[in-house]
Amino acid sequence: MNSLNSEAFVLFGQHILWSDMIGNILGLIGLALGWRRNLWSWPVQFASGLILFGAFYGHLTGSAGKQAVVMVVALYGWWQWNRNKGAAGDGHIAPRFATWRERGAMIGAAAVGTVAVALLFKAYPSLSWDPWPDAYIFVGTVVAMYAQARGMVEFWFAWLLVDLVGVPLNFANGYAFSGFVYVIYGALVLWGMRDWWLRSRDGARPVLEGAPA
After folding, report:
1. Minimal CA–CA distance to 68: which of 39, 44, 48, 41?
2. Per the confidence metrics, is the pTM higher than 0.85?
3. DSSP secondary structure letter of residue 213
C-alpha cells in the first residue's frame, strides 16, 4: 500500500497520489455501472473503498472510517440487487421513487447522523481536519449508497448534494484528483438521474388489457 500512496504526477500544482487516483477512478466506474443498473457496480465500489481506505488510513482517520462504512454498504447493495435483479423484466433492478415516509427517514437520518459524526470529529480532532463538511460527506455518501441499494431515484439527488461539498473539500485537503472526479460525478449523476427517472415512470405505467407488454 506504500507504493499506492506515492505520487503519480503533478496537476495544476496539485500532487496526485496513485491511491487517490485509482480509488476515485474505480468509484467513478462504480457509479457508471450503477447508472446502467449493473450488479458489478457494488464490487467495484467495494474495491474503490478498499483502496481509498489505504490512502487515508494513518492521517485522515475519519475519511478512512468513511471508506470502511462504504465497503459495508457495498456488500449490502450487492445483496439487495441480487435479490431484486429481475424486478424490471430485463434482468436488472427496477428503479422507483421513495415513499414520503422513506424520504423523511433518510433526511432525518442524514441530519442526525451528520450532527453526531461532526461532534465525534470535533471531540477527536485527529479524525478530521474539517469536522462539519467531512461529516456531511460521510453521512451523505452512506445515505446515497443506501438509496442506490434500494433502487431509489433519490440516490442521485443525494449524490448531487454530496458533490456540492465534496469538490471544494477535496481540493482544500490536497486530494486534487478526488476533487476533479467529483466534478465528473456531477455530470454523470445528472445523466443517471434522468435515466432512472424515466425508467421509474415507465415502470409505473399500467399495461392496458390486450396491449403488447
Report:
1. 48
2. no
3. -
Torsion (CA) 62, 65, 69, 70 in degrees, nearest 10: 80
Q: How many CA atoms lie within 13 A of 100 on its CB side?
A: 0
What does residue 199 show for φ and ψ, rounded to 5 degrees?
-65, -35
Residue 167 near residue 160, CB atoms below 8 Å: no
H/E element, 153: none
User: What's the rounded mean pLDDT across residues 163-186?
Assistant: 74
Q: Which three cell numbers stand for residue 20?
A: 487517490
Listed residue (70, 53, 55, 44) closest to 19, CA to CA:
55
CB of 193 closer than 8 Å to CB of 153? yes
Residue 152, classed as helix, strand or coil, is: strand
How many Å apart are CA 92 and CA 27, to the nearest integer? 20
Cell for 44? 467495484
Digit-coded pLDDT (tens) for 114-163: 999 999 989 988 777 788 988 898 899 899 999 999 999 999 999 889 88
Instruction: State the cell numbers at 164.
Output: 456540492
Radius of gyration of the chain (CA): 18
